[in-house]
Amino acid sequence: MAHKFLPNSDVTITKTMLNKLGLTDAEQLYSDVPKDVTLKRPLDIPSALSEIELEKLLTQKLGRNKSYPEYLSFLGGGCWVHHIPSVVDEVLSRGEFYTAYTPYQPEISQGMLQAMFEYQSQICELTGMEASNSSMYDWGTALGEAGRMAQRVTHRNRILVARNASPERTAILKTYCIPAGMHVEIVDFDGVTGNLDLGFLASKMNDQVAAVYFENPNFLGIIEEFAVDIVEKAHACGALAIVGIDPATLGVMKPPGEYGADIVVGDGQPIGVYPNLGGPLIGIFATRMDPLLLRQMPGRLIGLTSEKADPSRQGFVMVLQTREQHIRREHATSNICTNEALFAVAVSIFLATMGPKGMKELGEHMIAKSHYAQQRMKEEGLEAPFFSGKYFGELSVRTKMDGAQLAKNLGEQGILGGLPLGRFYPDFEMVSLFSFNETHSKEDVDRLVSALKATTS
To answer: CA–CA separation, 408 vs 413, rounded Å?
Structure first.
């Protein structure tokens, strides 16, 4: 008898399919799987539940999750809680965007192409770059693609990565680049300021370096004071400068295009996308208007054109689709086979809603809240900031307690954060990273400081 949800489980249908394949048993489909790794017993799973029982069980299990806004969150380090105007959800929920988010016959989806074109234009304005694709998976995969792109452009195999960049994103970069024969080398940072060590970087530079990657602000929340010098050192030896950014900071900070970046990567999550339990997110990828760079940039590039006979009739078109393996086979610049275009629309709506003034105010909130927190923590005898470099939105704090235990203790008081830096840097086990932004009130910050004092005293 067929299962009600699996119509092809009917015995007659199963036999017909096996006969067509010249097989007598479905197990023969797995003949290439080694016998020593196959399970030789039934799966140890409970019997089926009724819908009512299943709903109760899942509700009970989900009730164990403690998240924002039930808990006050100061977590950052790559995925942040920010306010998203209600207009973002309202416009994004239109069926036209949901059903056409990644059109394979693009020119019939003019509305979606226009939204992607607007997104690209806004990312270019925000980053100071000249060309942007219409999104990647997330920051980490955008970085991985940038590393591979640097190899194709320069024909070199070394990439230098700042140790104060996100260790998780660095791990993704290695996953992308090492199989391609690239060497990913780490450049240390100054343990006092949190800035990249320029002397160490200079000792690593030679004519085999394809690119230098650093983040600004970096993973530790520190503004890279020597960003211009890092870019110049990369260019001096013929390497590309890849800069990682948090777009929420660019309403205040100088965009990387203005200090010479060749490729900019980042994540659009802080400007229009909910944390979503850490994903999915949306990768930003922008570059200079250089034909060589454009041709090697993974992703889709949308353009605006007009009819030759009647220039007043305009339309949006897909100019480049260099990444797609279904189009270019082995010549594709990437094997990534979808993107986050629906979230790109969310980012576009957010940026259109905020405008330059709103983005400036967002950055100012992040600066003001983090500096107020630092002042209050210092008043209570806490070592904040731990790093002496200028910080933006994220604050390093050293306590007398292991960072992981501190996070657990704060969680028991209804507070998420900080991020234990000892998880990534063994020499900073007592240091935690706290993130501050427009969602935090003065009372929220005071509550955190009180909890820290009570927990660590």
So the answer is: 9
313-333 in b/e burial notation, b at 16+ Cβ within 10 A? eeebebebbbbbeeeeeeebb
User: How confident is the model over 100-125, as pLDDT tens digits?
Assistant: 766 667 778 888 889 999 999 999 99
Give SS3 for 153.
helix
Contact 335, 325 (CB under 8 A): yes
Count other C-beta atoms under 10 Å from residue 446's C-beta.
Answer: 13
- Give yes or no for a contact between 210 and 240, defined as CB atoms under 8 angstroms apart: yes
**Can you give the pLDDT at residue 101?**
64
pLDDT of 69 > 80? The answer is yes
DSSP 136: B
Whole-prediction pTM value?
Answer: 0.88
DSSP letter for each residue of 315-350: EEEEEEETT-HHHHGGG-S-------HHHHHHHHHH
At 98, the pLDDT band (50, 70, 90 cuts) reads confident
Tokens 């409970």 appear where? 46
Q: Please give the pLDDT value at position 403.
A: 95
Dig out the tokens for 70 from the structure: 């039930």
DSSP state of 267: E
Q: Kindly list the structural domains of the chain, giving each domain's residue range(s) and its CATH number in brackets, ordered by start.
A: 7-45 (no CATH), 72-82+356-456 (3.90.1150.10), 86-351 (3.40.640.10)
